[in-house]
């Protein structure tokens, strides 16, 4: 049996090495060129239409179930998780500081992919029997490509994959709480399950209301602490960029506990951790974006671009800066437990409070991830079997949290990467087949008097008035 798990582990490691990295990077680059570098062309406009509109008193235009901000924070709840705290130091230890550059690179080209997924999710969404807007890869596969079988494959694979995924997430919270506060795993699991039930059974509206408050607070708490460290060490900023940029294109020699890394490993670890963190191409975030109130699919696609900025360019970079500037990655025993490096780095700056800060952040990041992936799983069941089955599968996921918290997931975590590949491949196929529709909608949005030109016209008029 052990040999079987070893084989599964090796297949997963190979698959998430060059094959899938080439597929994702290639798709991201193709869409970046096809859409005329959408993520770089209108930075100020994108900011004004997304984060800039949060403080506006005007209500979002168009139909939808939740506000665009609630859709974004729901999607961010899934992506801002353990990968941001423990995944980044792992990339640094196995790929060197240059891996951070490749994390940024894959984030920048991944924006075109995530933009495309979210545009398609809104374009082909529909209303369920409760009058809520539902969408995502399974809907654009059925409604856009007329390939229901591909949608069934995606929905079934994601629905099943999320059971061990929830167990692993539950286990990571329970283990962290037990280690830090000496609380039994079962008690932690039951408390988590209770919180998830309260929120998830309220549907996307309740999830949106919770994440709208929860996610900004959670991210600001963690990133704010990293910014304090940055201002304490302003002289470390040039050194940070020197380390990251200097080793992005040349091998990193061994030092301290770091074993050294070839350039191929640097790129592989940067890409893999970046993709794990922002989920571009997996097709999960579009399920949240599909419920947003919007007058055009492209407008919501702009929010998806901002999601990657927050998740990878801000939160992951904050972790990288703290880890690299503290020097903990060069310690003799650093390679023994890379996931502990973030805690050690914050503790070096803030003492015991630093360790508590990372622990609390990790607990909240992972709990918010569980809440949203349970919602994602329920949406797959709804697509396959209807609304009532979706409620039943939520109970299965809640039970999985408790099982995971007492260590039941340890034998199945090897299957997670394989299951993720089974979701990613059909989604990439669908996005590529529908890429011309994304281009048509993008062109329509930026050339029509109803959308971009009207927004720009308003801005010019407002300037004249003021």
TrEMBL record:
Q: How does it sit in the membrane?
A: Multi-pass membrane protein
Q: Which UniProt keywords apply?
A: Cell membrane, Membrane, Symport, Transmembrane, Transmembrane helix, Transport
The GO terms this record gives for MF are:
amino acid:sodium symporter activity
Coiled-coil region: none
User: Which ranges does the record mark as transmembrane?
Assistant: 20-38, 71-95, 101-124, 145-163, 183-201, 213-234, 240-264, 302-329, 349-378, 390-409, 415-434
Quick check: keyword Signal in the entry? no
Instruction: List the subcellular locations.
Output: Cell membrane
Query: Which Pfam families does the record cross-reference, listed alphabetically?
Result: Na_Ala_symp
Source taxon at top rank: Bacteria
- Supply one GO CC term from the record: plasma membrane
What's this protein's family per the entry? Belongs to the alanine or glycine:cation symporter (AGCS) (TC 2.A.25) family.
Q: Which NCBIfam families match?
A: agcS
Protein name listed in UniProt = Alanine or glycine:cation symporter, AGCS family
The scientific name of the source species is: [Bacillus] enclensis
């Amino acid at each position: 049996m052990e040999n079987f798990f070893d084989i599964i582990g090796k297949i997963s490691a190979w698959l998430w090495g060059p094959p899938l990295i080439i597929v994702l990077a290639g798709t991201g680059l193709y869409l970046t060129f096809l859409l005329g570098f959408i993520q770089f062309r209108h930075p100020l406009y994108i900011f004004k239409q997304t984060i800039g509109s949060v403080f506006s008193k005007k209500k979002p235009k168009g139909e939808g179930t939740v506000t665009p901000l609630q859709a974004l924070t729901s999607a961010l709840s899934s992506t801002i998780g353990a990968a941001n705290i423990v995944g980044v130091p792992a990339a640094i230890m196995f790929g060197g500081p240059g891996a951070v550059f490749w994390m940024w690179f894959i984030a920048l080209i991944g924006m075109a992919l995530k933009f495309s997924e979210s545009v398609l999710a809104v374009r082909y969404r529909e209303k369920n029997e409760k009058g809520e807007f539902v969408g995502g890869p399974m809907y654009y596969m059925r409604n856009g490509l007329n390939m229901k079988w591909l949608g069934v494959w995606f929905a079934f694979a994601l629905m099943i994959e999320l059971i061990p995924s929830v167990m692993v997430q539950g286990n990571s919270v329970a283990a962290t709480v037990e280690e830090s506060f000496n609380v039994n795993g079962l008690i932690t699991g039951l408390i988590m399950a209770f919180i998830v039930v309260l929120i998830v059974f309220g549907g996307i509206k309740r999830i949106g209301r919770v994440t709208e408050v929860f996610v900004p607070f959670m991210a600001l708490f963690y990133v704010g602490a990293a910014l304090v460290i940055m201002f304490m060490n302003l002289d470390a900023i040039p050194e940070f960029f020197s380390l990251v940029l200097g080793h992005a294109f040349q091998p990193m020699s061994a030092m301290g506990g770091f074993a050294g890394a070839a350039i191929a490993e640097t790129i592989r670890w940067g890409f893999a951790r970046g993709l794990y963190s922002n989920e571009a191409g997996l097709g999960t975030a579009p399920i949240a974006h599909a419920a947003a109130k919007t007058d055009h699919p492209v407008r919501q696609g702009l929010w998806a671009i901002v999601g990657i900025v927050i998740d990878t360019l801000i939160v992951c970079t904050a972790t990288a800066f703290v880890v690299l500037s503290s020097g903990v990655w060069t310690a003799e025993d650093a390679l023994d437990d890379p996931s502990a490096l973030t805690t050690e780095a914050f503790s070096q700056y803030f003492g015991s409070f630093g360790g508590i800060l990372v622990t609390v952040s990790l607990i909240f990041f992972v709990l918010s991830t569980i809440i949203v992936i349970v919602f994602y799983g329920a949406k797959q069941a709804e697509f396959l079997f209807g609304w009532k089955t979706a409620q039943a599968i939520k109970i299965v996921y809640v039970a999985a949290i408790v099982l995971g918290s007492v260590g039941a997931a340890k034998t199945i975590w090897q299957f997670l990467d394989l299951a993720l590949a089974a979701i990613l491949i059909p989604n990439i196929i669908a996005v590529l087949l529908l890429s011309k529709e994304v281009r048509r909608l993008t062109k329509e949005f930026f050339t029509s008097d109803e959308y971009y030109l009207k927004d720009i016209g308003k801005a010019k008029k407002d300037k004249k008035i003021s």
